[in-house]
Amino acid sequence: MGKHRCGWCKGDSLYEAYHDEEWGVPVKNDDLLFEFLVLETFQAGLSWITILRRRENFRTAFDNFDYKKISKYPEAKILDLLQDEGIIRNKLKVRATVSNAHAFMAIQIEFGTFSNYIWQFVEGVSVKNKVLNYKEAPANTTTSNAISKDLKKRGFKFVGSTIIYAFMQATGMVNDHEIECFRYNEV
Fold first, then answer.
1. To the nearest 10°, the Cα dihedral for 172, 16, 136, 1?
2. Catalytic center residues
3. Distance CA 27, CA 168 (A)
4. Which of 64, 27, 46 has its CA nearest to residue 171?
5. Alpha helices, DSSP H, located in the chain
6. What are phi and psi of 127, to 5 degrees?
7. CA 23-40-32 angle, 5° bins
8. Which of 51, 54, 40, 42 lies closest to 93, judged by CA?
9. What are phi and psi of 128, to 5 degrees?
10. pLDDT, tens digit (0-9, with 9 covering 90-100), for 85-135
11. Which one in 58, 70, 142, 185 has a CA-CA gap of 20 to 30 Å to 96?
12. For residue 44, what is the DSSP state?
């Protein structure tokens, strides 16, 4: 018998490694928070495994998710990205990544770090839910609604409540591992 994992990741080694090592682990590092924000932006309307399989391509295409560099992308770089078959070539999402980099840095100026800003919504502590089956986890919550609304007010794009809730799950702001999952009490 192997370890009990959340049902959503079973059967794919990349998915299982992501689940076992990253998903739900609290992230307070701004660089990694921005990476997850970008990846969740591109995930909108697609499956997470699609994004996960292209993650290294995204890293290369977007300069290791360096928001300072991304905020300065000239039009020529944006057009190059739209031709890059290794990523999702969605014009609105590529442009949103550039504008979100600007908004991200504005939050850093106001709050010291993006982490300070985003984690205040959960009082700095991961919310530990009691999910029996991953299919029962919510798609959004009042907290993700509030974050989404505030981010939009600050100029962010592709930050709807469902995207933000997925971001919260990925970055450990909420622990939605199934109760029987071996990671539930570890994160």
1. -120
2. 18, 40, 48
3. 10
4. 27
5. 13-21, 30-43, 48-53, 55-61, 67-70, 75-81, 91-111, 114-119, 142-153, 161-170
6. -85, 120
7. 60
8. 42
9. -100, 105
10. 999 999 999 999 999 999 999 999 999 999 999 999 999 999 999 999 999
11. 142
12. T
